[in-house]
Structure formats: structure tokens, C-alpha cells
Amino acid sequence: MSTFNLPDVGEGLTEAEIVSWKVQPGDTVAINQVFVEIETAKSLVELPSPFAGTVTELCAAEGQTLEVGQPLFVVAEAAPAPSGAAQPAPAPVRSHDTDPEPGILIDSHALVEGADAGAAPLVGSGPKADPVRRRPRLGRPPVVKAPAAKAPATATASAAPAAHSPAASGAAGAAAVVRSAGPAMASILNRVLAKPPVRKIAKELGIDLSKVRGTGGGGEVTREDLISYQAQREAEQAAAPTFWSHGEQEDRIERQPVKGVRKATAKAMVESAFTAPHVSIFVDVDASRTMEFVQRLKKSRDFEGIKVSPLLILAKAVIWAAARNPSVNASWVETENGAEIHVKHFMNLGIAAATPRGLLVPNLKNAQDLSLRELAIALNELATAAREGRTRPADMQNGTLTITNIGALGIDIGTPIINPGEVAIVAFGTIRQKPWVVSGEVIPRWITTLGGSFDHRVVDGDLSARFMADVAAIMEEPALLLD
Amino acid sequence: MTSTRQDSAAPDSAAPQGALFPNADAPGPANRDAANPDTADGEMVQLLDQDGALRADPDFSGYISDVDAQMLRGFYRDMALTRRFDQEATALQRQGQLALWVPLRGQEAAQIGSGRATRSHDYIFPTYREHGVALTRDVDFPQMLRIFRGISNGGWDPRENNFHMYTMVLAAQVPHATGYAMGIQRDQAGWDRARLEREGTAVVAYFGDGASSEGDVHESMVFASSYKSPVVFFCQNNQWAISVPTRVQSRIPLAERARGYGFPGIRVDGNDVLAVLAVTRWALERARRGEGPVLIEAFTYRMSAHTTADDPTKYRLSAEEESWAPKDPLVRLEKHLRSAGHADDAFFEQVARAGDQMAARVREEALAFPDPTLEDSFNNVYAEAHPLIAEELRWHKEYEAGFAQSPAEAGQEGAR
Description:
The complex is a heterodimer of chains A (483) and B (416). Chain A is α+β, with helices and mostly antiparallel strands. Among the domains of chain A are: 2-77, CATH 2.40.50.100; 260-482, 2-Layer Sandwich (Chloramphenicol Acetyltransferase). Chain A has eleven helices and 18 strands. Chain A has helices spanning 108-114, 146-164, 168-180, 183-190, 196-205, 223-239, 260-275, 288-299, 310-324, 372-387, 461-476; strands at 2-5, 15-21, 28-29, 34-39, 44-48, 53-58, 65-67, 71-77, 278-286, 330-335, 338-343, 349-355, 358-360, 363-364, 401-405, 424-428, 432-438, 441-455. In chain A, the strands form four sheets. In chain A, strands 9, 12, 13, 14, 15, 16, 17 and 18 form an eight-stranded mixed sheet that branches. The termini of chain A are far apart. Chain B has two domains: 3-368, Rossmann fold (3-Layer(aba) Sandwich), CATH 3.40.50; 374-415. Chain B contains 19 helices and seven strands. In chain B, α3 (69-94) runs antiparallel to α15 (329-339), α3 packs parallel to α16 (345-368) and α4 packs parallel to α13 (273-288). Chain B is globular, with a radius of gyration of 23 Å. Chain B starts with 10 loop residues before the first helix and ends with a helix. Chains A and B meet through β5 of A and α3, β5, α14, α16 and α18 of B. Chain B: Its cofactor is thiamine diphosphate. Chain B: Pfam families: E1_dh (PF00676). Chain B: This is Pyruvate dehydrogenase E1 component subunit alpha. Chain B: InterPro entries: Alpha-ketoacid_DH_E1_comp, DH_E1, PdhA/BkdA, THDP-binding. Chain B: Residues 1-39 are annotated as: Disordered.
């Protein structure tokens, strides 16, 4: 029996999806006979068999994604026969009707999304390294450099303080990078790149350019991007009347496989909702002073080119309030000797972000160390990275408390579910002018609703109420931050 | 050749460069202005059309007067074997046996025609796609796989066949070629014309339409022109620099660029093995005689992907690929061989069989290549022995000797 493992058919690809099998168990294959079609992040590829014999097993189903190196199919080899030349099947006809202009690359992001490839590289960014396999030494090598021998001891010593604040050392580096980003950089990151004619078309069509995925250089939104976005929008709207269908019950159910971010979100939410008893509380806040403060910051020279929003003040308020009510910045940990509550003396502030890939919660490491200006830059960078799909797994680990901004779509408030591993989450509703009673008079004020969910195993009602009141206090009077 | 060509003048007496270039210093073939860089309609030298019929050319027919039926069958065999090899290597890459492969399907005539025009003492600087040229220089097919299998920086000894190692860096081999040609000029200083024609060495620099945009090519052409160095710039314009079409690289036919440097440029039908042979022979003779460089633009088509990591369906249309199918260099030569009665079914079957046998051998040898040792790396740092390298090699050997040799030993070590 010979097993053929999925090779890296591009340069540095890590996985591929099985598109269609060209053979079935029991079939005879010859060397170089095409036996499967796979789709990588780069292209559709037909694989020729390296063996001649009888197929005994197909190791994956069509539609399944395999990592490079996993078994693909198994052949009982026959006596070697002369190999034939691989004859590629005719490719589907490409014409101007269906394709963009030749020489213009198709949106490479679409390829990744279609394959649900997560972190699949689009270009050869280096193949996955082989696992390091080390042969045992017979004795000390004849020449050993002194620093190398010392290294393990140093590592052990430095590990002790690190245990006090896990992830602190890695986070410090990230924070340093954030700090070095100047205002010019931030303005580049925030601004949607598009040429004036494209902006004009977007304006005419009523399209928010920040919602369009740019495929041009540096993420520039091109005319084609706009056209395809509009086509998709029209298709969605046009599809609505045909959504309801008639016929057999089975045919009327659309089956969507749960994978990728959807799967991860589902798992996290079930884990959180059914292990942490949630208690949720809400508070209406007069955020008028926050709005004024934001306007002042926008005009300030120090914040020139930096995007400032009420979310920035809320983030600062949450950090401030967590220091006064430390139990909300903690986690519940089951150990061999019973449960423990780990109170974190650092704030890795998670921001829930709706991205084209789904819901992601990247966090700002050591957010407590950031000035208001640094926090603004970091928030923008985090949002940009999430929107462009550049969020790294490390950005989503070791969060300590999360903010979710559900106001963007005009929603007043909801009950948030705690991010697993944390004990508190703050939801931020839309801010709008409402009638408000001030000194006995009804006047229009900027009102928002804050909601918080807390793990009742760790945070009792009074503590959650104090924490939320502290957050609300800052939103009502940001000057308290100077305290 | 056919009987109608029997009365063709011998190459030497035909002296086509005389007709084309009355003054060797006057740049450019005056009567060969190619029209549009984008189409094959531009003027180009063609001796065998796509229906397999011979076409006379007053300047270049004379250069292939020695080509007989046996040579024609040889060219076909070269091209067919090269194509079969290309298929096998592509399959090996798909099977995970090569890290990468660079297919050449469609460019066989440009490579075999030009390669067969060289003499054994001429020196060739290839790109990474010149598998057909390598064949004409007697490099064995399996050796060409070594670099793509990641077990060698080369694969063959360039000194044995005067065929340089593949260069992965785009256009980097072109200045090397010009420099080499300038060296030859100095070695051959004082030779008279007769000796130059008889024993002189010429250099061929291969590159593609994409590389023609690189600064290296410009610099090379400036130097080669200034010193009238014996180098032939052989550009295979296969229409696509990965996903960038030639019309983006140049607004005029690439061959016309030579005029600006002050030496002749000529466009040849790159899918016509006879035309390529004739034009390259002319250019090499000229170079050997000390009349300076020539730019040959072989107008051809990459029928496959740029490399196995590329997917051409992303950037070009089926209609374009189909339009090139009738111009296939093998198809046209087969038509000619059959219509002229030079070859029958038995010949083509025999070539196909030989191809399959060659492919099986290539596969077998490629899979059996030994892994290189780190020790090998020390051999190619300097041309000659070097004390520092010798010391590092000694240290490396001692270090390696410090490890258990086999799992059994490792087990004993653990038990002790």
C-alpha cells in the first residue's frame, strides 16, 4: 500500500480543498493519471498519481480542506508500468463576458474566502518548516560557546516574573510598536484610498467607501471594486423576492457547513453561556459631554489625522473603572485544587469587531499603559487590521475584558455574552439625541445606553453595579479621567 | 531540405548581412520594421509557416541550406523529447517531488533552433526555462531537475558543456554574458578574421520579454554595443511576464529597441525552428567575426503556466490560448515532415515511445538522487582551497561526529 500525502503545489501553500475526485476505490490508476482536482489559495490544480495500481482509499471527501502533508489517497501498487504523460483536462472557457480584463488579477481575497482559508498565504511567504528532529548528542561537543550553555538558566530566571503577568512581555513589544506609529501613519491607516472619480460614483450611488473591499494598490478602492460591490448589493436586493421557495420540504432547506470563524464563534458562545452564569445590567447615560470632548479632540493639534470617536472615551472609561473595581478584570480558573479567581493587574482590552470573515475579538495588550492619543491610534490600527483580515491569532489571545459596540447599526442595547476566559463585557448602544430632564426641564441631550454582562461566579450584583456606574460617570463627565 | 531549395546559395556566399546591413555600424534592419508589438502580424522572419510549408527568404534561406531530412527529424525529436520531459517534470512537481517547475511548452522551436545554431565552444547563459537549449548542449534531462528538487545550486558543471547554470534572479545572467563576451574579446585579441570565423567564440544571453524591462538588460546592451562584444541577446517573447502582457512592457516591438543601442535587432517567428536556426546562425557568425551584438526577438507563446505556482486562467482568455494552438511549433514541423515525405507514422510513434522511456528514466533517477550533505556546501565557497573554510569544515566534521549515528546507538545512549 502506498499513501500519497497532499504536497505543497505552490510556493509556501499550507492547505488545499478537495474539489473533485477523478477516481474511486477499486479503480486502476497509472502513473501521472489525474486522480483529483484540488483548489489552493492560488489556483485549481489537477494532481497526477505518483503510483500505478488499484485505488484502495480516498482519505478526504469533496469539499473538505486538507493541510499539506495529510494523506490524500492510498494505492495498492501494481508492478511498475511505463508512465504516461499527464494530460490536463480542458479548462473551462474564459471570455470577456465572464472575466475581468486579461492581465488584471482577480480579487485574491475572494479566493481565500471561498476556500475558508483563514490564514492561508496568498503568495509564497515561505513553506511551513519541517518539525525539528534532533539527534541525541554523544557527549559535549568539542567547542561549546559559553553564552549558549548559560542560556537555559537565564530563561528559567526570567520565567518567574513572567508568570506573575502572563503575556506581558510579548504585549510590551506590541505596545511599543503602537506607540511608535505617528499621526501621519494613523491618517494613512484610517483613510479609505480611492481616486476622486471613484469617490464621486460612490457618492452618487450612496455607497460608504469604507464598506467596500479595496483590491487596488495599498487597499485602494477601484472603480471595479465599486461596481462589483454595487452588483452584489443589487443582487441581494433582487434576490429578496425569490428567497421564499416552494416544492419539497427537503429542497427548501439550504444547508451551510459550519466552519472557520462561524464555528469558532459558536463554540466560544456556547462555552461562555453555559459555564458562566450571566448577570446583565443596563444604564442610560447622558453622553453629551463625551460628544463635546470628542469634538474638541478632533480639532486638537495633537490629534490631527487621528480618528477619534466616543468608543475611545468608553475604552478609557472601562480601563479607569476596572482599576477601581479590579474583580471585573479577572478570570475563573478550574485547577486540580479547586477553582481560583485570577485577577489581572493589566488590561488586554478586547474590541469585538464585525469583519468580512465574521466576528473577531482582537485585544489591545496592556491598554492601561496607553495615553488617550496612543489608545486612539491603537484602536484605529486594530479596527483596520480586522477589516482587512490582517488580525493575527496572537491578537485575539489573552484578553481580559471586552467592549462591544452594537450602536453602529442604530441598536439601543442588547445582552452581550462574555468572551470566554473573561468575566465582564460592556456593550455600547447607539448615541442619539433624546428628550432628557435636566434641572426640571426637558431638553435634547445625547443619550446612550450601556449594558454589561458579568460572570456571577466572580462578580456580584453590587460590584457590577459599581463598575457600570463608574463607566457611566466618565461618559457623563470625561473630565473625571483627570482624577 | 526539399529539392526546390537545392539551388540556394551557401550561407557564406549569400552574406545576408551585406544586404541587410550595408554598413555594419548602421543599426537596425532597415527593411524589417515590425509593426505592432502586440500582434504576430508585424514583420518577422519565417521559413516554415503554420501549415508546414516552406517559405523562401532572400536573406535567411541560405543559412539553412545544409538542413536535410535527417536534421529535420532530429529537430522534431529534440522538441518532442523536451515537451515530454516538461510534462514529466510538471507531474513530479504536482506529486511533491520538486519544489517548483518552470514549464516551457510552446517555446520548443525557439530553444532547439537557437541551441542547435551554437557551436560547442560557444558559451550559453540561460534563464531558468531553457530546458530545450540545455538538451542541445548535452545536459542530461535528470540533471535539470536537481535545482528544482532543492538538492543543488546548479545541477551540472557549466564548464563541461559551456552551458551556464540556471539563473533564478531575473535578467542577472545578461550582464554576466556581456562581461564574459568582453573577456573573450581580450582572449582573442590579435586574431585575424579567418581565425575568428573558424575558432572564435560567441556568447548567447537568453532572457524573456519580462526581463527585457530590467535595468540589467539595458546596461548589458550599452556595454556590448560600445565594445562590439561577441554576444547574441536572445529574447524569447512568450507574450506574458507572469500576468503582465508584453504590450505593457513595450510600446514598440522589443527587437526595435536594438536600434537605440546601435546594433541590429530582428524579430523571428519563435515557433518556426528553421527560422530561429537561420537567424541565430547569422547572428552568431556576425558576433564571432567581431561585428558586435545582435538582439533576436523570438516571437513565441508560453502555452503553459509561468511556473507551477502560477495559474494563467486568472489573467488570460481561452480564446487567446486557442489562437496560438495552430501555431504550435511541433504541429507545424510534423505537418512539414509528413507532407514532404520525410517521416511516417512509425517515426512519430518511435519518438513518442522514446519520450515515455526517457520520462520513466527521468522519474527513476530524480527519485533516487541522494540528499546533499552540509559538507558539500564548503566545496563551492571559493574557487580554490581557503584556510578559513578548511578550518570551518574541520569544526563541522567534529561537531557532526558528536552525534549518535543511528537510532540504536541513540537508545543505548539513553539507557546509559
